[in-house]
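Task: encode each sequence below as structure tokens.

Item 1
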Amino acid sequence: MDKYIGMDVDIKKTVACVVTGPGDPGRYRTIATDVEAMQAFLRSERAGGYRTQVVFEVRGEAGWFYDNLEGYADEVVVCNPAQATWIYRTSKKNDRIDARKLAVLLMMGEIPRVHMPSKSIRDWRSLILHRRVQVGQVTGVKSRIKAILRSQGCGKPAHKGSWWKQVNREWMRQVAQGGIEMWRIRLSDELAHLEMMESQVRSTTKRLDAYLAGRPGGKLLMSIPGVGPRTAEAVLAYTDDVKRFSSSKEFCAYFGMTPKLDESGSCRRVGHISKKGPSVVRWLLCESSWIAKRKSPALKAFFDRVTGGQPKRRKVANVAVGRKLLSIMRAMLLTGEMFNESLVGRICAADMAA
């Protein structure tokens, strides 16, 4: 006999509901939210030769729970509540109700599942996101430095070129040390903060480069014009296993690069992209698209076709190129072939003619 176990996990306690079949009102148990208590509970439910399946919602500790509970049930399922809002459309809601709903939906096979990658892949994703935060902090510090200088009438750096080339950085240090005014103290602190943050970004980038060098798909994706290590690693990390996507459309939808669809009767509206999935991948893809369409004649022709001579459609066309890059990446990961400009040109031409 099978047991379907829904777990509503909270910070302090977890409410579990066990159902064995249709019409079963369920049996409830409240346990502490820690791995040892969960393992002991699942071990007891498995006693007697029962086949157990357990489900809980995705959360910050989902990967930790998944790794430590996997051997204590026949199947561990992680649910995506964002794709199951209809589950909670009820006038009554508490931990016991939510746990039973999860158990019943698991029994029915209606749980929207979350793909749970290995710990190494999850750590890779975390470091990619960490670097993005670091880069954002560096940008914020630079903006504050320029704001301080402009408030003192320095609208442009002392030397031509970027604010951040070495000669201008030295000029800013001299300005910061030129007196005891409060704004100079702020400038000195921000310059020191900038150096520290840039050092951290370099260290994180070095670690990411070393990890990417050991991934077989890294050089493959970087053969695409405009795709560098940061874009390649983000796509690889969040793809994990490309074979879990049955089509190019499904692959692009996972990254939120497919348009929303509102269709009823004869009315069909196609809107903006859904923006579901990892935003860091979309951000990097769109950055790569601007470069790719300059370096690849096939992608440039595709970009121009989508733009249609309308400057206002340039951003729309860039997103379309980003989606095309994703489709190309999926094909390359499946076949193991490097970027082929002539083949991409024929594919883009066929898509534009369709």
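Item 2
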Amino acid sequence: MKVKRVAIIGGGTAGWLAANHLGVELRAEPEIEITVIESPEIGIIGVGEGTVPHIRRSLMKFGISETDLLATCDSTFKCGIKFVDWLHPAKSKDKNYYYHPFSSPYPAGYDVTSYYLKHQQMLDFSAVTEATAIAEQMKSPKRIDSPQYEGVTNYAYHFNAVKFGQLLASNAVKRFGVKRKSATIVDVTLNEQGEVASLHTDTHEPLEYD
């Protein structure tokens, strides 16, 4: 059986990321229908969300501009991940933190990871990654004239998760024809093979997908 009707249960960032990925991959097959089913009773956790650099590749693939991301999602650039109080207090004193960078440590033009591991008692980890200096000085990883999704150094984002989900939803609906349905799924019916035959909402509406 060819899959023609796809249901994604739940919206938010996870559901709408899935919808955009499927929309991109299946855009050459217009007979396949994708529907995101969102519950009006189950809220989205509205926190700041952190990402890793791969998100830039996904957003480019979706056709979402970086300008729209920055303008609509309360976005800020993320240069790395800072770990505070993970070091030995007596030895580290006032500098009790380190950064996990998004790029391999190669300030000399080659990967110095093995050298650092052998001499880590002598070499500060911040010396082998640009992330520490950029983040601590509140510098941007890209220039104002840098192209979309390109920077002087590698980067990701922090943004408002609710607004990011709304941006993804708008893009999926307009660009890929993804459908939206408001319903709360409370049960499923299985067929003889143990596969989902239908979904059931709190209003007793049966929904059938492939």
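Check on item 2: Helices lie at 12-25, 54-62, 66-72, 89-92, 113-118, 131-136, 161-176. The chain has a mean pLDDT of 87.
End of task.
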